[in-house]
Specification:
By secondary structure, this protein is α+β, with helices and mostly antiparallel strands.
């Protein structure tokens, strides 16, 4: 005799009335025991009630796997009440990972062929929810027959089930093509919406289906035009827009059909203009249709006027009070700024106003778009706006804003002085957040503008006197004071206000930097070197400088201690050479990476050709190869330089080193990844002394308009290899071909097996996180043979 158990409603009330989690567990355990007992006794009349209670327990997160077989029994029952609960249980308790789900295939097939609409609907819902690839293959024919059933209820569910079948088994796409063409004549909006969804899925997964359905573009245009021009309908209109769900789905399908196809695009141009001009934008439904229209216009071969209209629609979105609509507009304009730059430029004031948004996501997208809009004609005005934003922006945006301003100034600076003032303003405002190369760029700029040396050193000295907390600013100021300290003391700069500076004030300021707890070790190194250089530029006694330098000879920081010891030695033993050694730094020409590589290669080739007859080349090559192995790989390792005849060369000859074999041929560079301007190349070096060792230099470049940030490259190799990843040179690749990231892989291949690499890349680009995992199987054979 089965013990009495609670009804479903009573069970829900008792569980909700439990005061503690322990009481809830007690109630559920007690009821699950009654349910198990009922299942064991095989009570067919109350089985569906017991399973309904078990499903509620499952929804609360408690185990209910013992009800799986009861689902199968209820599905096989002829009673509709049993089938309803049985199919619901199958959708909740069964999935592809359990073999039991295959046992209901025959029951679903029988129910689909019965002709009872509610039962067919239950079977179709279950198949579309948890149908595996095997079930889809067995039941695809039955579903295809139901696509043309008289009942819209069954047709709609059969269409959605066909979508699931195509996703699981794309090979079955062809059997649904004839039915889709007939279903497009359907007048029932629900069936028509499902049909458009099915055709979209077919076109995305099958090139043959895409070519097939391009013939129905005129019919789709007609359907959409009817929706746009039809009057108000209580059954389908939402906020005054006629069936926006169907309109959006048709626009998505037209975008797929018109992409890279001139004839289809031309057929829908007039319709898109009509939708863009006639859709009501006072409600969210109309904005959804308009946004989908804009995406379609931008993705097909549309007319230039139509593209301008689409950009203007996004510009109106920026004025909308809804933050979500403004966010969508900013994201879309950011994607369009490269292809339709002039049209987007018209909305620059509105975009700049979005920088004042309190919402962090909106201000970030507005910042990215503002940086993308900077060009040579508006660089001054845009930089002023961005600098004003930098002073008040959230902390998490300061790094991106500072980096963007520096890149824009480097690309579009009208004058060197303006460029220098812009960088200096960024360093003063947000020096802690600038990129690592900002110091090198500014020092390079100052060194290359001789007419601005006096102006630069005065501006930097004044900024340093006001604030020594911004470390990049302190480093640049210390370098500049050390190089041009004599100009600071002269006091005859026409471009700045008169500034009288005494030698003791300059030395005291640098000592303050050295003693500050905020100064980094690198900053102290700049300040110590600046003091040393001032010893040759100041007219007074160097006693104070020598005292400061000698103090740091016992510093705990090894780098700083080494500098101080060397400077002390220079004072004591080589004072006659000090002025020559501490002369102003010569200007180092800095070109783009491609120019630098070509110059380097040509220079190496010239040296090799000139030194070909020198007999000491093998020894020099071997020594340089050893040095390269210790210091890290470089391009010179592929083309070792010969040793010129000199006393150093005679010393190498005296060592009588054995002759090294000829240098191996260079291994070609391999491009393994490219996406939206981000490219990853692998270059290979096999040191002659250790043939089992392979050095791979990973170089990441960025030719797009947005910075690549938080870049991480991870690698894996088969177990027979040994892999060591060196630290990368950075995690940010600036836009427009900025300084690339390099990383060294050291791979030991003792068995000389073919090399296979698996790489995982994660980074942020245009504000979106990107993750790519791929294998590299086409590594040149020279890397392992």
């Amino acid at each position: 005799m089965v013990a009495p158990s609670l009804k479903l409603q009573d069970l829900i009330e008792e569980i909700r009335g439990a005061k503690t989690q322990a009481q809830e567990r007690e109630v559920i355990q007690k009821e699950c025991a009654h349910i198990r007992a009922s299942f064991r006794d095989g009570d067919p009349l109350h089985r569906h009630r017991q399973l309904a209670k078990l499903l509620y327990v499952h929804m609360l997160g408690y185990p209910a796997h013992f009800g799986q077989m009861e689902c199968l029994k209820l599905i096989a029952s002829p009673r509709f009440t049993d089938k309803r609960v049985g199919y619901l249980g199958a959708m909740l308790l069964l999935d592809e990972r359990q073999d039991a789900h295959l046992l209901i295939t025959n029951s679903i097939k029988n129910d689909l062929s019965q002709g009872i609409q509610p039962v067919q609907g239950l079977a179709l819902c279950t198949l579309s929810t948890m149908g595996s690839a095997e079930m889809c293959q067995d039941l695809a024919t039955e579903v295809e027959k139901l696509l043309l059933q008289p009942s819209p209820y069954v047709r709609k569910k059969a269409i959605l089930t066909a979508v699931h079948i195509i996703r699981k088994v794309p090979e079955l796409s062809n059997i649904f093509l004839p039915s889709c063409a007939q279903l497009l004549h359907e007048r029932h909006h629900g069936v028509l919406l499902g049909t458009i969804t099915l055709i979209t899925e077919l076109c995305e997964r099958s090139p043959a289906a895409l070519r097939h359905f391009r013939k129905v573009v005129p019919q789709l245009v007609k359907i959409l035009r009817t929706l746009v021009t039809t009057g108000y309908s209580t059954e389908h209109s939402i906020s005054g827009v006629s069936d926006p769900f169907l309109q959006v789905q048709i626009l998505r399908l037209l975008r797929i059909l018109g992409r890279n196809h001139e004839e289809s695009s031309e057929a829908m141009n007039d319709l898109l203009a009509q939708v863009a001009t006639n859709t009501d934008t006072s409600r969210n439904a109309g904005n959804a249709v308009l946004f989908e229209t804009v995406l379609t216009i931008m993705d097909i071969h549309s007319a230039a006027g139509l593209r301008v209209l689409a950009v203007n629609i996004l510009g109106r979105f920026l004025l909308n009070s809804d933050k979500n609509i403004r966010y969508v507009a900013l994201m879309s304009l950011l994607r369009l700024v490269q292809s339709d730059h002039s049209a987007v430029q018209r909305h620059r004031p509105t975009v700049v106003d979005c920088l004042k948004e309190t919402d962090a996501s909106l201000s970030r997208r507005a910042l990215e778009l503002s940086l993308a809009l900077v060009n040579s004609s508006n660089v001054r005005a845009m930089t002023r706006e961005l600098q004003a934003f930098l002073e008040s922006c959230p902390i998490d945006l300061r790094a991106d804003c500072a980096s963007g301003i520096l890149l824009a100034a480097e690309r579009f600076a009208p004058t060197k002085r303006w460029h220098m003032d812009t960088i200096l303003h960024v360093l003063i405002t947000a020096g802690t957040y600038v990129r690592d190369d900002a110091v090198a760029n500014l020092t390079q700029l100052i060194a290359g503008a001789q007419e601005l040396h006096a102006y630069s050193v005065r501006r930097l000295y004044s900024a340093l006197a006001e604030d020594i907390s911004q470390q990049p600013l302190v480093q640049v100021a210390a370098w500049c004071i050390g190089e041009y300290g004599d100009l600071l003391l002269e006091g005859n700069c026409e471009e700045t206000e008169p500034l009288q500076v005494e030698e003791e004030e300059v030395l005291a300021l640098l000592e303050k930097v050295l003693q500050s707890h905020m100064s980094l070790p690198a900053t102290r190194g700049y300040a110590l070197t600046a003091l040393m250089k001032l010893s040759t530029r100041l007219r007074g006694n160097n006693k104070r400088i020598r005292q400061v330098v000698s103090i740091y000879g016992s510093c705990l920081d090894v780098e700083l201690q080494q500098r101080a010891v060397e400077y002390n030695t220079l004072f004591r033993k080589y004072d006659h050479m000090r002025a020559a050694i501490l002369e102003k730094m010569p200007l180092v020409e800095r070109g783009g990476p491609q120019v630098g590589e070509e110059a380097k290669e040509s220079k190496e080739a010239a040296k090799l050709s000139e030194a070909a007859p020198v007999p000491t080349e093998p020894q020099a090559s071997k020594l340089l190869d050893l040095l390269d192995l210790l210091d890290g790989p470089s391009e010179d390792a592929q083309h070792p330089l010969p040793l010129d005849p000199s006393p150093g060369g005679a010393l190498v000859q005296l060592l009588d080193l054995p002759c090294a074999p000829p240098a191996p041929a260079p291994i070609p560079t391999l491009k393994v990844f490219e996406r939206e301007g981000v490219q990853l190349n692998l270059s290979f070096i096999r040191p002659p002394g250790t043939p089992a060792l392979l050095l791979i230099t990973v170089t990441v470049t960025n030719s797009s308009g947005g910075d690549v940030t938080h870049f991480i490259c991870q690698a894996a190799v088969p177990k027979s290899f040994q892999l060591q990843l060196q630290a990368p040179s950075g995690d940010t690749v600036p836009a427009w071909g900025g300084l690339p990231i390099t990383q060294l892989f050291r791979i030991l291949n003792p068995n000389k097996a073919p090399l296979r690499l698996k790489l995982r890349l994660t980074y942020n680009h245009f504000g979106q996180p990107v993750q790519e995992i791929f294998e590299v199987n086409n590594v040149p054979v020279e890397t392992w043979q």
